Amino acid sequence: MNISCNIKINHVSRVEGHGNIHIKIKGGKVMEAQWEVVETPRFFEAMLVGKQWDNAPWICGRICGICSIGHTLASIRAVENAFGIVPSEQTRKLRLLLKHMETLQSHILHLYFLAAPDFLNTGSVFPLIKSHPDVVARAARIKLVANDACDIIGGRRIHPTRTVVGGFTMLPDKCMLETLKRRLEDAMTDLHRTAELFRSFPVPDFMRETEFVSLRGNGEYPFIGGDLVSTDGVRRKEQDYEKMTNEYTVDRSTAKWARLSRDSFAVGSLARLNNNFAFLHPAARELSESFGLRPVNHNPFMNNIAQLVECVHVTLDSITMISEFLDAEWDEPRQAVKHKKGKGVAAVEVPRGILYHSYEFDRAGKIVRCDCVIPTGQNHANIQHDLRELAAQSASMGRKDAEIELLAEMLVRSYDPCISCSVH
Amino acid sequence: MPVEKYLGVPLHRPKVAFFEFTACEGCQLQILNNEATLLDFLSLLEVVTFREAMKERSDDYEIAFVEGSITRADEARRLKVIRSKAKILVAMGSCACFGGVNQLKNRFNNLAWVKEQVYGTFPIETEEARPLEDVVPVDLKIYGCPVKKEEVEKIVTNLVLGKSVNHPKYPVCMECMANDNICLYKLGEPCLGPVTRAGCDAWCPGSRRGCWGCRGPADAANVDQIISIMDEHKFSAETIIDRLECFGGFREFAEALKKKTATSKTKKKRAGK
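^ inputs. structure came back:
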């Protein structure tokens, strides 16, 4: 029995943004188990008011440095929905390919640089350069191909330049797409080795029944637009996102929190997988099953494995899509845009979960109202509830302080939080 | 102090630390995005603090790379501590150099409204977004939103080798012409390339996206002329202002243009009456 401990971690490392953990156990009882979000807010929803519509994707993409492509695409979709623009099939597929490549680079960044050090007993990836050079080289290789793909399609890997309302400013060079396809085929070997590496890591044995929210696949594993669904049986239309998020403020957080059927819910890879397992590429599904990951899985630490499964899915799907592009002639890169008064909502699955952008425009095409609901914002309450449960279990199992501290940090990291994003 | 050889010459590897304030952390991510050259790059430095990537922390560092703008009192305090420990303080990215997109909230001159718009009645602390140099002296700036990794590598290598760091004095337009890009004005797109400081290799115009001035003004940039060029191409004052005020580097020019537009509107209204 762990009689007492007082753990305070200010600014948890190897996560994006600033969050604190505080766990206090006294006489085997959890006195406190808190997840605090102390990030400084940036006020994107205010700064856009009065701006012309074309500012939205350009500025809102800058909510996040890791998933700027996802934010840009969500913003574009919201504007297009408001103006009644339906993207061409070519644009739709090219955006999805770009989205896949961001998912791949982001998941690999998390798996190798942020999560893996915990299992390899180091504080960061840097000592691994000497101790596990092959592992670091492999991570860099996969990340590089994904990032290069973002450059080729979106113009650049962070804050993309070619993605605009109506389509793309220019299209990728087909020779480059051909090379990209070959490199992605090679990356599959690296992904299989990644799976072997993660198979050697013990996943902490922890479970807490959770509601999982994501897009609902309609014939394919969902990433851009569609209906919203939860494992508790809630189903809503994209434009009714506010009924799915029910945001509220909490004293110890500069980010807003969310709830649905219970006190909290989770979004992210595990949520997507739990809701859309049947739509995974067969090879990805097989990999998932080999890890014992089947819906509905309630272990938050399995989010790492769900990310790995998604890496395989997006890579294989991208190879197919590139082949189709190579076989076809390019159409026009973009269509003309005519603004009008109205409201537009977009739901897009970004690496850390479902993201919503919503704008209202006046007759002149100026932004009257802007609302963004971030995946990590939706996860904060769930992290809080998991943390309390983890503290309680740790107390009853008599875990040592250092062990509790590491597990608590690993729990937060498993959500791959993007805290500055959540406090946009 | 770890010493390695570079071209046969013993090299001092400086201890460096990375910090972030109000930002998207994209500029720090650009450091990790150097996959192809990451290992070579890291061999030049001894990273002692990099919260986004490592658990270890140390207060013993020579160079501090700081991302983000300052928007809260505790950030200003932390930045002063960093300044007192670092020999060289580098402002990394538009937020650190000019306030970045964060300073867009300053334009309302009404923080109470800004807070209310996002948080309702929930109490939240924020100040006007400021660049680092409004709080502490800054030794070096790396421009861009995001910073360009090749430029970061070049600057850091020069720093480590003790060479001076010089930014191009000329505008993005020169790089665009050197790259044989189609001029954005010919494509009917507004562009701040003629006045924005080069060094990004015309990153956005190369992708047929007009420049929004994230690197701030070039030396002797003729901003009045770009305003008249935009005007000649029939871009509205609003379109020009949107670009000039986006990242904070051209703030004064945006403000001046806003005032001018406001006065001409009133004049027109009066004349109409």
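The two ends of chain B are 76 Å apart (CA to CA). Chain B has a mean pLDDT of 91.
thumbs up if we can close this ticket
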